[in-house]
Amino acid sequence: MSEPDYYRLLDANLNRVCEGLRVLEDWFRFASPDPGLVAYTKSLRHRIRLQPSVLWPRLPALGLDARDSLLDCGPEITRDLQTAGKTSQTHSQADHLITANCKRIQEGLRSLEEISRLIGQTCLASTFEECRYQSYELEKRCFLTGQAETHKDLKPDWSGHFCGLYGITMADPARGRGHVDVGRALLAAGVRILQYRNKTDDLKKQYEDCLLLADACRSEGALFIVNDRLDLALAVSADGIHLGQEDLPPAQAVHIIQNVRQRTGSRIDDDSPFLIGLSTHNPGQAEAASTEPVDYIGVGPIYPTNTKTDLNCPIAGLDYLNWTSRNISLPQVAIGGITMENLTDVLDNGARCCALISSVVLQDDITSAAGQVHAQIMERA
Ligand code: TZP
Ligand code: MG
Questions:
Q1: What residues line ligand 1, using a CB cutoff of 6 Å?
Q2: Which of 245, 279, 308 to mutate for ligand 1's pocket (most ligand atoms within 8 Å of CB)?
Q3: Nearest alpha carbon to residue 377 among 131, 118, 122, 7
Q4: Residue 308 known to be catalytic
Q5: Measuring CA to CA, which residue among 107, 115, 4, 99 is closest to residue 51?
Q6: pLDDT-derived band at 174, boundaries 50, 70, 90
Q7: What's the CA gap between 257 and 239, in Å, rounded?
Q8: Whose C-alpha lies nearest to ligand 1, atom 8?
Q9: How far is CA 252 from the centre of its chain?
Q10: What is the spatial distance between Cα 33 and Cα 26, in angstroms, rounded to a whole number?
């Protein structure tokens, strides 16, 4: 028997889910305006559409015939929306449209979850499962629209991206590689998050680098995070900022982001995601982060490191990682002195997302080293 065509199956279901979300998004944008639901359906759609970025590099190239399935369910859904639009005078037809598309989304997500599990992509399967639970919540909220209930607690969930290698840029002048070269090499390995971390170049150079890397991340479906500088992150429409304990407090960062977004002419969509990451070095800081507007935490340093020259905390060690993995529900990134040799110990202590800077960036072939590390973490995630 020939190998089942997993691509076609995954691609068709991804498309089915995204089309269903698109119909709901359009409905709540134009026919029955509800900005909270528009933002939520859009963020869920973006999250789901980004998932294959980790999957495709590990499978052979997606054939054109499989891509045809992108067209498969479009006309059918468009017809649904047109029919409901023409006859939307009655509530029941609108309700039917919403219910039918919610079911389509949930069934598609269930298939995606099962296929992912079947091909050994357990982390991806869990992400689709989380998205399915979010879609049940979405369905409930669709029928509360117009009531006093608000949608404030419908927050996009990006936790599925915190899986595998968390890429961080570092220049390697000895090999003539700058941050952009390194970032692109990491993206080619399939990382789902890339952080731009540059402590030396002037801001103009950093801005130019970030414009290129934000663009590259967008085309690869990865999240782009800027270290330290909120101004730079906002200027290039990054997906988030990574802050240290000595940087701007997360609540202040949120305040600035909201102010910028309120201004007309902002380059940032009101409803695009903006993640805040915070480095933590002990249980007290991790617990405090859980009560702040923080989307993920850095956990470390796990081992001594030469990369962070301004390190001003003790080595947190594997015990701290083990503690956060059991006690903190935020997504976590293990960092500091992690190498190919000690990676298994890090994974044994609960890490599902790890940042390795020098041991990946200082290799001759960054993409190959990063790809190996990424695959090793994904297998355990
Ligand atoms: N934060 C804590 S340790 C560290 C940062 C940015 C550096 C990690 O680099 P390496 O080379 O993986 O030890
Ligand atoms: Mg910092």
A1: 279, 300-301, 305, 307-308, 335-338, 356-358
A2: 308
A3: 122
A4: yes
A5: 115
A6: very high
A7: 12
A8: 336
A9: 23
A10: 9
Q: Two tokens at 28? A: 């709540």
Active-site residue, 175 included: no
Residue tagged active-site, from 45, 279, 352, 359: 279
Classify residue 355 by burial, with Cβ atoms within 10 Å: 0-12, 13-18, 19+: buried
Question: Tokens at residue 30, please?
Answer: 């134009």
336: closest CA among 303, 313, 373?
303
Mean pLDDT of 153-171: 81
Question: Which two three-digit tokens encode residue 285?
Answer: 């800081």
The verdict on whether omega for the bond into residue 301 sits within 30 degrees of 0, i.e. cis, is yes
User: 0.90 exceeded by the pTM?
Assistant: no
d(CA 369, CA 357): 11
Does residue 263 contact residue 278 with C-beta atoms inside 8 Å? no
Binning pLDDT at 50, 70 and 90, where does residue 357 land? very high
pLDDT tens profile 319-343: 999 999 999 999 999 999 999 999 9
CA distances for 203 relative to 160, 198, 199, angstroms: 31, 10, 10
Whose C-alpha lies nearest to ligand 1, atom 3?
336
3-state secondary structure the chain: CCCCCHHHHHHHHHHHHHHHHHHHHHHHHHHCCCHHHHHHHHHHHHHHHHCHHHHHHHCCCCCHHHHCHHHHCHHHHHHHHHHHHHCCCCHHHHHHHHHHHHHHHHHHHHHHHHHHHHCCCHHHHHHHHHHHHHHHHHHHHHCCCCCCCCCCCCCCCCHHHCCEEEEECCCEHHHCECHHHHHHHHHHCCCCEEEECCCCCCHHHHHHHHHHHHHHHHHHCCEEEEECCHHHHHHCCCCEEEECCCCCCHHHHHHHHHHHHHCCCCCCCCCCCCEEEEEECCHHHHHHHHCCCCCEEEECCCCCCCCCCCCCCCCCHHHHHHHHHHHCCCCEEEECCCCCCCHHHHHHCCCCEEECCHHHHCCCCHHHHHHHHHHHHHHHC
Residues 380/352, Cβ–Cβ less than 8 Å: yes
Report the residue count for the chain: 381
* Distances in whole angstroms, Cα of residue 135 to Cα of each of 23, 129, 191: 14, 10, 26
